[in-house]
Amino acid sequence: MKVLVVFYSMYGHVHRLAEAVAEGARSVKGAEVELRRVPETLPREVLEKMGALEAQKTFAHVPICTVDELGAADAIIFGTPTRFGNMCGQMRQFLDATGQLWMKGALVGKAGSVFASSATQHGGQESTILSFHITLLHHGMVVVGLPYAFQGQMRVDEITGGSPYGASTIAGTRGERTPTENEIEAARFQGKHVATIASKLAR
Ligand SMILES: Cc1cc2nc3c(=O)[nH]c(=O)nc-3n(C[C@H](O)[C@H](O)[C@H](O)COP(=O)(O)O)c2cc1C
After folding, report:
1. How far is 121 from 114, CA to CA, in rounded Å?
2. What pLDDT score does 188 carry?
3. How many Cβ atoms sit within 10 Å of the Cβ of residue 6?
4. What Å distances lie between residue 97 and 90, 102, 171, CA to CA?
5. From the centroid of its chain, how far is CA 188?
6. Which residues have any ligand 1 atom within 6 Å of their CB?
7. CA 87: distance to chain centroid?
8. 7 CA → ligand 1 middle, Å
9. Predicted local distance difference test score (pLDDT) of residue 17
10. pLDDT value for 202
11. Coil, strand or helix at 130
């Protein structure tokens, strides 16, 4: 059973969550889990101005995802930073190249799930995940979220990302906040949950 964790990250927050999602998925018996990133679309000069070059070096070793790899997976868990309440353009561009898969119905019946990051607490994590689900549904995927069985999303004693739609983190307006233990736990839970459902679907 193949689980693919596909992400875009500019400053590393989504990458950190992606690692936790992969860790959770790997804890399910029979799961072969691969981490992939989608291609960068911004020119180097723009990335430099955005202060992203150093951070991006820390996950440059993660292989770039191919469209064929999506077709070969049993479950795909996508991670994206928020851009004006939606997924980032890099992820959108990657998904817009999956028309061939759609034509063949290659993702129909596979588990699909989304996690996210935003700079501010109410900056659009939920809208990013929910609007991403539309693409998954067009592909015929079985959308999987983060159930309240992950009790960490009920906490009010600290500021935390995470909702029934998926794990998320708050990066801070200068990217100064790193994912908290609770947010990492949510990501692990989501990875394990998706892989468990995928193994049931594969049977
Ligand atoms: C063009 C652009 C639009 C953004 N829009 C939002 C937004 O609507 N709400 C928000 O809270 N953060 C917004 N952000 C901040 C990013 O979501 C934040 O940098 C990201 O979640 C950090 O994750 P990363 O380190 O994995 O890139 C935006 C950033 C950029 C560059």
Report:
1. 18
2. 98
3. 24
4. 11, 10, 29
5. 12
6. 9-14, 81-85, 117-120, 123-124, 171, 175
7. 10
8. 14
9. 98
10. 86
11. helix
3-class secondary-structure state, position 84: coil
Which residue of 15, 117, 118 sits with most ligand 1 atoms within 8 Å of its CB, as the best mutation to test the pocket? 118
Find tokens 């353009």 and name the residue: 89
Model-wide pTM > 0.90: yes
Helix or strand holding residue 18 (H, E): helix 13-26
Please tell me the predicted confidence (pLDDT) of residue 180. 98
Query: What pLDDT was estimated at residue 203?
Result: 81
**Which residue reads 């980032």 in tokens?**
88
pLDDT at site 116: 98
Cα–Cα distances in angstroms (integers) from residue 36 to residues 51, 117, 139, 175, 179, in the given order: 22, 17, 20, 22, 20
And the tokens for 175?
A: 């990217």
Pocket mutation for ligand 1, best pick of 13, 38, 84, 178 (most atoms within 8 Å of C-beta) = 84
Cα 1 to ligand 1 centre (Å): 33
Q: In the chain, which residues have pLDDT < 70?
A: none
